[in-house]
Write a structure and sequence with these properties.
With 337 residues, this protein is mainly α. It has 3 domains: 54-101 and 212-337, no CATH class; 107-141, no CATH class; 156-208. The chain is built from 11 helices and 4 strands, in the order ααααβαβββαααααα. Helix 4 (81-99) runs parallel beside helix 9 and helix 10 (280-300) packs across helix 11. It is globular and about 75 Å long. The model is unreliable at 113-120 and 122-137 (pLDDT under 50).
Length: 337
């Protein structure tokens, strides 16, 4: 169908440039081949040009400078912050998918004690317990490993022997408790017992197939991250309330910090998938901490000592919130596994 290219397709106003000066619609003809549309979509999302290289250079070689120039209004030469954050998140999860690295591997192993051998032996002979640890070695505990490369034959099924016995015992106790408070009773106790049974089933599933748990994590973790970015910005705003700055300026810095974090984690995933071992996953944490501190110095322009104090407070408070958020995400993923 032919259209008048001299007039706006939306309001019919005569065009004098690439955009209509009345309604603002771009004068673009979408009657193009399919591959042209795909190319336009990729360009609008990733916009790979000189801005991309400048954005990457600023993000990784000059902490805080990207935020500073963006908040100062110099935005035409860099990518939008939210776009860079979405791309970094996508890169991280694509890296997980391509390498097969598990974000979290859960194992159930015999509980350990720090008591001396002689004390442990005496307690075992007496059938004693210390806390919740059975000195006979029958009690099991959960162990979590982060960013684990899959072995050549894949992750083995860990639901065997004592593990299965502990899971069966847990289900038995829940079933006994549910006789007094069934899920349909509508009580808080009944609701918690139903959730406990779901979590037990999820635990058995992820012990048998760790990647199933990571599939659920891949669903919940991005959602939680979208909530954590504005929370981090809120803490920044509370710590830097004088001189007054708009919340959006703190949000820009938060987006940049989390963008660098996801790119760094994607690099770690690649190294873990290629070389194995996950010791490098812990070395990236202090590096990211230094990056945030340097970024705060550049963005907010305070003294080193004052900024360092605020940085410590920020890491303590946000670290606690992050831990609680990850625990909540873990429980959600466990219930869905």
């Amino acid at each position: 169908m032919e259209r008048d290219k001299a007039n706006c397709a939306n309001c019919g106003t005569a065009l004098s440039g690439p955009f209509c000066h009345v309604c603002g619609q771009k004068a673009v003809d979408l009657h193009k081949p399919f591959w042209w549309i795909v190319g336009e979509f990729l360009d609008s999302v990733f916009s790979y040009d000189s801005r991309t290289l400048r954005t990457l250079w600023l993000l990784f070689t000059d902490p805080g400078e990207f935020t500073r120039i963006y908040n100062a209004g110099q935005r035409a030469s860099v990518l939008p912050p939210f776009r860079t954050f979405i791309i970094a998140t996508l890169v991280f999860f694509v890296a997980l998918e391509m390498t097969g690295v598990a974000m979290v591997r859960v194992e159930m192993v015999p509980a350990r004690t720090v008591l001396p051998d002689a004390v442990s032996a005496a307690a075992e002979r007496a059938g004693a317990k210390v806390g919740s640890i059975n000195m006979s070695g029958e009690t099991m505990e959960l162990r979590f490993d982060l960013l684990v490369a899959p072995p050549p034959g894949g992750f083995p099924n860990a639901v065997t022997g004592k593990v299965q016995e502990n899971l069966d015992e847990a289900r038995k106790k829940i079933d006994e408790a549910q006789r007094d408070d069934p899920p349909e009773s509508g009580t808080i106790e009944g609701w918690f017992l139903a959730k406990a049974r779901d979590l037990t089933a999820g635990l058995e599933h992820i012990l048998a197939d760790p990647l199933a748990f990571n599939t659920a994590l891949n669903v919940w973790l991005p959602r939680m991250t979208l909530l954590l970015v504005p929370v981090f910005a809120l803490f920044l705003a509370l710590l830097h309330w004088r001189p007054r700055a708009f919340y959006i300026e703190h949000l820009i810095f938060s987006l940049h910090v989390h963008t660098v974090t996801f790119v760094a984690l994607a690099a770690v995933v690649g190294l873990v998938g290629f070389f194995g071992g996950n010791a490098i996953a812990w070395t990236v944490l202090p590096i990211l901490g230094v990056y945030v501190l340097m970024g705060m110095l550049r963005v907010y322009g305070r003294s080193v000592w004052w900024t360092s104090l605020k940085f410590i407070v920020l890491m303590l408070v946000y670290g606690f919130v992050l831990l609680m958020a990850l625990l909540f995400t873990f429980l959600l993923a466990l219930a869905d596994a």
